[in-house]
Amino acid sequence: MAFGIVPRIRDKVLNSYNWHPWIRKRMLADNGWFTVFHWCPWFKWAIVIANFKDMAVPAQNISAPQQLAVSLTGFVWSRYATQIYPFSANLLAVNFFMGISGLVQIIRKVLYYQENGKWD
């Protein structure tokens, strides 16, 4: 764990103030604020947001292989998120929405090609 740096920082923060019991509990949790289990899903939401922003991109410009990878990754990791300890609802949600956003983009691409009679 990086030479014990994170636990030392956590202990220093915990001892610096008389924290509310709920906050103290969250800091000490297995998936608390000083763990990768808390922060990684929050940063992964950027992929989901970017994919939803890409809904404004014309359907013919959507990369099917990229969206297939985003979708499959999201659904596979959603399953994984239900099996690991500590459980993180945020990890499950971000991966599920990642899968859904990729699937929606693939559907947009397929519908575009069906309407225009074009296939790659």
From TrEMBL:
The keyword Membrane applies. GO terms for biological process: pyruvate import into mitochondria. It is a multi-pass membrane protein. Keywords: Membrane, Mitochondrion, Mitochondrion inner membrane, Transmembrane, Transmembrane helix, Transport. The chain crosses the membrane at residues 84-104. Its main location: mitochondrion. Belongs to the mitochondrial pyruvate carrier (MPC) (TC 2.A.105) family. Mediates the uptake of pyruvate into mitochondria. This is Mitochondrial pyruvate carrier. It is found in: Mitochondrion inner membrane. GO terms for cellular component: mitochondrial inner membrane. Pfam families: MPC.
